[in-house]
Amino acid sequence: MKKIYILSVLSTLILISCQKVPSSSFTHDGIYKVNEEISFTNTSRNAHSYKWNFGDGDTSIVESPTHVYTWRDTYHIHLTTYSKNGRKENTYHTTCFIDTL
Fold first, then answer.
1. Is the dihedral of CA 27, 70, 72, 101 positive or negative?
2. What domains are defined for the chain?
3. Are 24 and 41 in contact (CB under 8 A)?
4. pLDDT digits (tens, 9 = 90+) for 38-92
5. Nearest 5 degrees, angle CA 101-CA 79-CA 58?
6. What span, in angstroms and rounded, lies between the C-alpha atoms of 11 and 18?
7. Which end of the chain is less congested by CB atoms within 10 angstroms, N or C?
8. Cα separation of 83 and 24, whole Å?
9. Model pTM score
């Protein structure tokens, strides 16, 4: 019984360590206007879950979200991706400029 338990634990550890680190990336186009809906296209690889930070206090866990900014400003957008077991992560960030109407 002890041999089976040890083998089970070792198998689990091997599976956890073999998970690939996700590669975070996304796209968006151009300069946007206040109150305009922006679509973010997630182009990440090896990711199982996502956490977006739009730089204005709002966040999302949707794979490819949309977002609306209500103030003219420059925002730093971060996408953090996680592996299936949640132990490995990677973050990508870029800047988005929101102009007036």
1. positive
2. 21-99 (2.60.40.10)
3. no
4. 999 999 999 999 999 999 999 999 999 999 999 999 999 999 999 998 888 999 9
5. 50
6. 11
7. N
8. 11
9. 0.77
